[in-house]
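Example record for the data management plan.
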Amino acid sequence: MPTPIKSITLCIYFYFLSTSLFAQEIGIVKFGAELGLTASRFDWANVSKEDQIAANYPKRAFRAGYHLGIRARMSLSEHFYIPVYATFQQNRLAVKSNGPVLLIINNQATLVKVDYLDYRYRQVLMNPGVGYQLNSWISLEAGLYLGYAFKSMQFSLKDVVNWQKSKDFQMGWDAGITGGLVLHRGPFYLRSAATQGIKAHTEYGIFDENGQALGKLDVRYLTLSCTLGWMF
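Corresponding structural encoding:
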């Protein structure tokens, strides 16, 4: 049975061993690859929840997508490091229909009843940040992101319309903040993160019951992700 002195000695030994390993990596840049799942939606910007309820704004819902990318990491000290991510995402989201949707089918205006309008879009993101390694297992990260969606927004109505390009709802450049938790195990890592857009997009087109445009509403995007990665 180890004595208290032996236990303390072992703790000190492993502490200095870990710090010496960290010190050997300071200034070194490592690279990795990752893939994972996303869940996205948008929020109404510049509108209070009370006003959303009073004006009967459509509800939004998360939908699952995917992403893949590369990661670079440079150690600054024993605990601090700089992570940079470059990712491609196929994000999806949904908007609840408050009534029949007016569609042009065979050159005729047709009202179709659906619960949700599903949307998807492709996006590339660059995400530099700052990380803090709590121990050899856990790290916290925060940073900024800049993204571009190629005007790729498509919509789908279940059992009625397959994916088609949206004319009244698109996104180009986007920017925001991000934060995440990273779990390490050898060369592998598991990262859960959230990206919140701070740029308001005047994009979501609204129409009356006759299909006449009433203008566009401001939205901001939120994406949650869970990622499995491998450092080379």
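Summary line stored alongside the record: The chain has one domain: 27-231.
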